[in-house]
Amino acid sequence: MILYSEQNVYEAAKERIRQLFSIGGRLGVCFSGGKDSTALLHITLEVARELGIRKLPVMFLDQECEYTYTVEYMRYVMSLPEVEPIWVQVPFRLWNANSGDWFIPWEPGKEWMREKEDIAFKENVYDADRFKDMFNAIAFHHLGEDYVSLGGVRIEESPARRAGLTGKETLPGMTYGKRCSHGVVMYPLYDWSYRDIWYYIFSNRLRYNKAYNYIFSKEPLRSARVSSLIHENSNQNIPYLQEIDPKAYNAMYTRIPNIGTTNHLLLDAFEEIRNYPNCFKDWPEYLKYLIDNIVAEDKNKIIFSNNLKTVITKVANWSDVDRLDIYRAFARGIITEDFEQTKLNNRLLVHKSKYKYGKAKRNNHPDA
């Protein structure tokens, strides 16, 4: 059920941020250089000015394989007088979906895509080495115990996010976040649409990442995003990276395995598989073949195999159309090395309301 109020999303976001400043613990913004974190940063700065807060910690985990325009934009943001810059350029493990293996940004002894920034934190003192753990560790180190970090996640982008950020309280009266080991990360723009984001940026004439100016010519406005170029959800931009950011492409080509292969495959590798080859008897057999022959690491083969068994059982009584949708999502997840099964879980959530306890709701007369 959607509940409406007289308050618009901009006013609601500012009210949420005021509440978060008031609950105690040091507050900072996680910043990626994308449109959502741009809007979040400037709204948070608005509230900080109202409250007389002179400096706002802004945290950026630099994954090395960033757009040139992201780096340029980050230098601008970190130079703002109201910003306390926390630019982190340290070694950690990042999954390279182009090669199905780990990539170490800023790995000692390697020739990096670019030199580190003078203001950056360059030593990994965070007691973490995985991407998903780094944000909590960085926030704890720089903000302290019981920190509050703000992120630009929105539920419009994913059914899983919608379920996660509207289902239970993170803080009293606030569902739009998650608890970490030392603090909380909250998403005060969780109910914004991409139109709200761009309206806020354009109407306030805010400076934003120039990469979007080029991506707009390649992707619909709704789909335009900037992030690490080796992530399974964004490496599909590599085929036109050579056109829009040749400096970054050339640096990546020599630094990161399989960038050239991804580029030559163009977008074909990221298309959804419509049907399994006729040499297989059914989708489960084909998916098992893909797991055995495409997934690189043994531990990820085990994860995919176990998930496949669960999915086969889960969708056994679903309609042919819905079951096909799930199997296609599973196949795409294997091919793009989405070993966390984000694509699959999103598709399962789309169908969740129609199927309970393994039985489909009837679509005919309500009394049937």
From TrEMBL:
Name this protein carries in UniProt: Phosphoadenosine phosphosulfate reductase family protein
One matching Pfam family: PAPS_reduct
InterPro entries: PAPS_reduct_dom, Rossmann-like_a/b/a_fold
Domain of life: Bacteria
Source species: Bacteroides clarus YIT 12056
Phosphoadenosine phosphosulphate reductase domain mapped to chain residues: 29-213
